[in-house]
Every structure is written in structure tokens, then in C-alpha cells.
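Memo to structure team: turn this sequence into C-alpha cells by end of day. - J.P.
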Amino acid sequence: MCLIVVAWRVHADYPLVVAANRDEFHARPSAAAGFWPAEPEILGGRDLEAGGTWLGATRGGRFAAVTNVREPGRPAGRRSRGALTADFLRSANSPTDYATNLVLDDYAGFNLLLADNDSLLYLSNRDAGPRPLAPGIYGVSNHRLDTPWPKLLKARQRFAAAIATLPDPDACFSLLADRAVEPDHRLPDTGVPLPWERLLSAVFVQSADYGTRASTVLLRGKDGSITIFEKSFNSDGQVIQSSVISTSE
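Reply from structure team:
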């Protein structure tokens, strides 16, 4: 994922609400959100190149999502960051116990969000240790939690209004579809060339080779049930797949 906004214990009916865009090279093979054939307790997309997932949940209400930290020129980690989420979804450990036992140096820079029915936790191997999150609205892109990049500030502000319209996900999808590029004077300096900074400054990224592959809205009800709404896109930014999947069915 390259943009995640999350509401934790803000909505009366949905203790966990997530809206996220997954940005990736279009050539990287992946599967859209669904129950995993070999592990039907897990619901999420799948990276078919390295395994794992960028965002997933379980029938029991566990949730995990990961973004990369933008570090051009840094080597890849020994393990795929998609394993961070998949391994948590397979485990029975609390978010804190799971995060505490990770070998952080095995992975390139990451931001990780983990939740069970009792807590939401943030962890980055480019920041301090595991951080339990109080009720509120948070956002993460390709730097630390709530880094005030323009697109993150805009998405978080619109998300705060969008959650009032749930369970209709349209307002969440609308904010995730924003393709406006920031003016140069507002761009962060993350070490990539200026044309890339411009491209990546949009909430929804679109180019021939790299861009937003999927937009996902996840709702967890008070009973722990998970509903995922997802749209997948081609390199032209056109919807090629749309689905609604729930653990309550």
C-alpha cells in the first residue's frame, strides 16, 4: 500500500474503518481481494511474486496492512514486507506480542498497522518501537505515521467526513480516486527525481508503468465481521474489477 487512512473506534457501528490505495508496478503479478484458497480464514489481496499481502483480514476480525518507506537506493530486505502482514494474520498473537518479536532488520523500510478486536498498533523499522494507537483518525503513506505530506493531509481530512456516510463506501472511494498532482512548491523531497515526486504526490497515482492498482475500503463491525469493498485498475486508471466480500456470508 502507498496510502492508508484509518479510523479506530471513531464510528459507532464500525470500530475499524480503513481506506487505502495500493500503488505498484503494473507488471508485478497479484490477485485481487478474496479468501485465500489454501488458507480460507484469511481475506485479502495476494502478491503472486513474493507471497504475502499488502492488506488483509481474518474471519476472526484481525487486520494488517503495510506500506513501504520510500528510500531510493537502499537494498531490499531478506524477507518481503508482505510477510509482515500475512504472518500476523496467520498467528494468534496480540499485535504487541507479534510486533515485539519481529526481526526488524530482515525487512526494507516499512510501516505496519496491526489490529485485533482489542487494539490497533503501528510499527515502523524507521521509527521508535511498537506504538499502540488511541481512538482517532490516522494516516500513513511512504514515511512515518501522520507525516504531513500534502496528499496524506488531504486524504485524512476527507476521510473524517466520509466515515459519516458509512456503510455506503462511495465517499471513501471518491477520496481515494483523487488524481490531482500537487504544485512543485508543496512536494516533499524524498530523494526521487522531480517527475516522480509529482507523480507520487497524487492520492491516486496513474502512469503506464506504475500506479494505483487497487482501492480498498474495509469495515469491521462491532461483532468482528469484516467487509471489504475493492476496485482494481489497469495502467490507464480504468476500473477492471469491483467486488464486495464479507466474512459474515
